[in-house]
Amino acid sequence: MKTCIRRITGVAATTAAWAMVSMATALPALAQAAAPAAPTKIDSGDTAWMLTSTVIVLMMTIPGLALFYGGMVRKKNVLATVMQSFAAACLLSIVWMVVGYSIAFGDGGALNAYWGGFGKMFFSGMTKEGLFAPLAINESLFATFQMTFAIITPALIAGAVADRMKFSSFLVFITLWLVIVYAPICHWVWGGGFLGSDGVMDFAGGTVVHINSGIAGLVAALFLGRRKGYGTDNMAPHNLVLTVIGASFLWVGWFGFNGGSAGGANEAAAMAVLVTQICAAAAALAWMFSEWMVHGKPSVLGIASGAIAGLVVITPAAGFVDPKGALLMGIAGGIVCFITATGLKRMLGYDDSLDVFGIHGVGGILGAVLTGVFAVAAIGGEGKNGLLAGNPAQVGIQLWGIAATVVWCAVATFVILLVIRIVMGVRVDEQTEVEGLDVRMHGEVVP
Asked: CB count, 10 Å around CB of 75?
C-alpha cells in the first residue's frame, strides 16, 4: 500500500509539472523495444498488415463512431455529435504529432516510469530503420498506428456528454485530456512505464483506451449534470440504422485495433482476430437475450450495444486468451454491461447519454480483470498464465493497473473540466439545449 501511494503521488507531481510546461496506443511489445538492441530489418508483410490496421482503426472513429453516436442522439443534435468525432480526428492528429507521441513513447530519462519526456515532439528523431525487435516496422508507421488510438479514446468521451457540451469547450477538453491523461497512462502501460514493468497485461487498450475513456465519461457526465428534460422528455435515438452501420464499422475496425496490436502479420494477430470475433458475437447475443427476458423484446440498439461491449471486454485480453476464454468473456460482458447500462444508470440517476461508462468503463474493467483469469501462457508472447492456469497473482496485478488508471483519470479529468468551466464555461445555455446544438452552434440542420 505504501508503494502504491508513493507511486500515485509521484505520478501526480511529475505530470503536473510537465503539464504546466506543455499546455500547448497499443503494442505490448514496446516495453521490450525500450531495451538497447539493434534495430530489425523492416518486414514487408508486417508493414502491409500494420498499414491496413492503421486505416481500419481510423475508420472506427470516422465514420464508425460518428455514425454510432450520431444515430443515437435526437435529430436536432445529430450534426453536432458527428462533428465532435470528425473534429477530434483532425485536432488530435496534430496534438499527437506535437507532443502526445513524445509523452507516450519517448524516453523520460530518470522519470521514464511516469512519462516519456519531450524528446520526440513534432515526431523528431524517429528512426527510418525498423523498430527494435520484435517489431519489424518503421517508427513512422508505429506512430501513425498509435495516433488512431489517441484519436478514438478522447472521442469516445463525447458520448457521455452528448446534447449539452459547448463545442469550443469540447475541443479544449480533448486537447488537454490527451496530453494530461491519455498520453501518460499510455506510457505507463506500453511505453516502458511502471504499470508495464509491474506486469499489467493490456494487449490493445483495456486500461489505456476503455477504462480511461469510460471513467472520464462518467466524471464529465456528473460534472455537466443531466440533460434538460432527462427522465421526462422523449430522448429516443432518431435513426438506429445509422447506429447499426456505425457499430458495424466499429466491429470491422476492431480487427485492426486488436489484431494490429500484435505488431505484425503473425500468429498473435491471427489469434487476436479470432477471439475478437468470438467475444463480440457472444456478448451481442448475451445482451440480446438478457434484454429479451427482462423487457420482453430484443432491440436493435441492444444487440449493437452488446457487440460493442464484447469488443471492449476482449481488447485487453486479445493476445493472451484462447477461444474458450473469449466465449466466456463475451457472455459475461454482454450480461454485465446490459445490467450497468440500463439498471444501474436508472438506479443511480446519472445521465451518461450514450452509455460510455456502462460499456467502455465497466466493460474495460471487466475485461482487464478477466484477462488475469483466462490468460494462457501458450497464447501470449509474454508467456503469462492467469488464475485458471495456476497464476492467481495476475488478478491482483490487473486490479493494481485498474486502480492506478481510475484514480489518475478521475482526478485529472475533474480538474481539467473545472479549469475550463472557470475560463470559458462547459455547458451550452438552456436555449441552445432546447432548440438543438445543430442550428445554434453550427448553423445547420438535418432536413
From this structure: 13
Q: Give CA separation, 359 vs 166, 212, 390, in Å.
A: 24, 12, 30
**Mean per-residue pLDDT for 324-345?**
94
Task: Find how far residue 116's CA is from the centre of its chain.
Answer: 20
pLDDT at 211: 98
Is there a domain that residue 10 lies in? Answer: no
> How many domains, in total, are found in the chain?
1
- pLDDT tens column, 293-314: 999 999 999 999 999 999 999 9
Residue that the C-alpha cell 486505416 belongs to:
55
Which three cell numbers mark 59? 475508420
How many residues does this entry show for the chain? Answer: 447
Single out the residue of 356, 384, 421 nearest to residue 168, CA to CA: 421
Is 214 part of a structural domain of the chain?
A: yes
* Rounded CA separation 439/76 (Å): 8
- The pLDDT score that the predictor gives to residue 381 is 66
Residue 343 neighbours by CB under 8 Å, 6+ apart: none
State the cell numbers at 225: 449534470
Q: CATH code at 397?
A: 1.10.3430.10
Identify which of 141, 61, 140, 147 has the alpha carbon closest to the alpha carbon of residue 96.
147
**DSSP for 348-405, written as a single string:** HT---TT-HIIIIIHHHHHHHHHHHHH--TTTSTT----GGGT-THHHHHHHHHHHHH
The whole domain housing 221 covers 34-439
Residue 26 has pLDDT above 50, yes or no: no
Rounded CA separation 264/313 (Å): 22
In a domain, 1, yes or no: no
Predicted local confidence at residue 364, as pLDDT: 98
CA end-to-end span of the chain, whole Å?
Answer: 58
Summarised one tens digit per residue, pLDDT across range 177-235 is 999 999 999 999 999 999 999 999 999 999 999 999 999 999 999 999 999 999 889 89
pLDDT band at 37 (very low <50, low <70, confident <90, very high): low
Domain membership flag for residue 171: yes
Average the pLDDT over each of 91-95, 178-182, 366-370, 381-385 and give the range with the smallest value. 381-385
